[in-house]
Amino acid sequence: MTWRGAARTVLATGWLALLLPLQTGATCGGVSYETGGEGGGCQSAALIAAAVVGGLAVAVTAGVLAYRYFAAIKTITDLSVGLSTHLPTPGGAGGRQAADGRVEITAHDDSYSISHAASGSGVIATLDGDGELMLMMARNEGSPISGRQMFDRVMEHFGGRVEVIRGYWVYGDNLAAFSAAMRDGGTLREAARGTWTGRQAARHGFTRVKVPIADEGVNGYTKVSALFRRERG
């Protein structure tokens, strides 16, 4: 069961516990839920139950958001480490590439990578159980494959399993483009759509945008997270 399913189950159970007595005519403090009474015992009980369910809903929602936030941070960190390890500095030692500079592709059910060590270029992408795709990409001079081609190969590999593409930017061209668009008066969604990742996502039909994180500093934005989804059919 995914985190979304667990949250729905908890909330549905809580509301059922509150509403079931109202539908069955159960009694509370000797007063029927259906008929009420002067003592107001059932009204108080219902309010208490509603408060409990409401508090539970807030707690579950906060827990889910916190989990997703820190999970995203960890995934980005892992991808960054993986990218720096998988793609050595051009001309440097190490890496998994042959000396002739061939492109190496590693494909698994939940991950996909392209590496060209001769130029220090490539991409590492992961897909979680909820269909959220995250990727880190680097393209330098001398790369035999473009960024657009790398993005397309990632999307081709995961296919219809991709539900959302997450961009998480703390440096680089995406963050710079986002900051520039905001300085020009754009909205958060417009700024995210105008980034390189936003344009690539749009080519694959992911045009619905949400920006849950947009931290602004003195010289522009310092951290942005954007989610790209397909339009509802």
Compose a concise summary of this entry.
This protein has 233 residues and is α+β, with helices and mostly antiparallel strands.
Quickly list its features:
seven-stranded mixed beta sheet, 233 residues, alpha+beta, globular
Structural summary, described in words:
Strand 5 (121-127) and strand 6 (132-138) form a beta hairpin. With 233 residues, the chain is of the alpha+beta class. The chain has helices at residues 3-24, 41-86, 147-158, 172-183, 188-193, 196-203, and strands at 27-28, 31-32, 104-107, 111-116, 121-127, 132-138, 164-169, 208-217, 220-229. Helix 1 (3-24) runs antiparallel to helix 2 (41-86). 26% of the residues are buried. It has a domain at 3-68.
What profile does the largest beta sheet have? 7 strands, mixed
β-strand amount: 15-25%
Number of helices: 6
Helix content: 40-55%
Strand order of the largest sheet: 3-4-5-6-7-9-8
Structural class: alpha+beta
The CA-CA distance between the termini, in Å, is 25 Å
Stretches where pLDDT is under 50 for at least 5 consecutive residues are 31-37, 80-100
Can you tell me the overall shape?
globular
- The topology string of helices and strands comes to HEEHEEEEHEHHHEE
Q: Calculate the mean pLDDT score and round it.
A: 76
What's the alpha carbon Rg, rounded to whole Å?
Answer: 25 Å
Based on DSSP secondary structure assignment, what is the total number of beta strands?
9
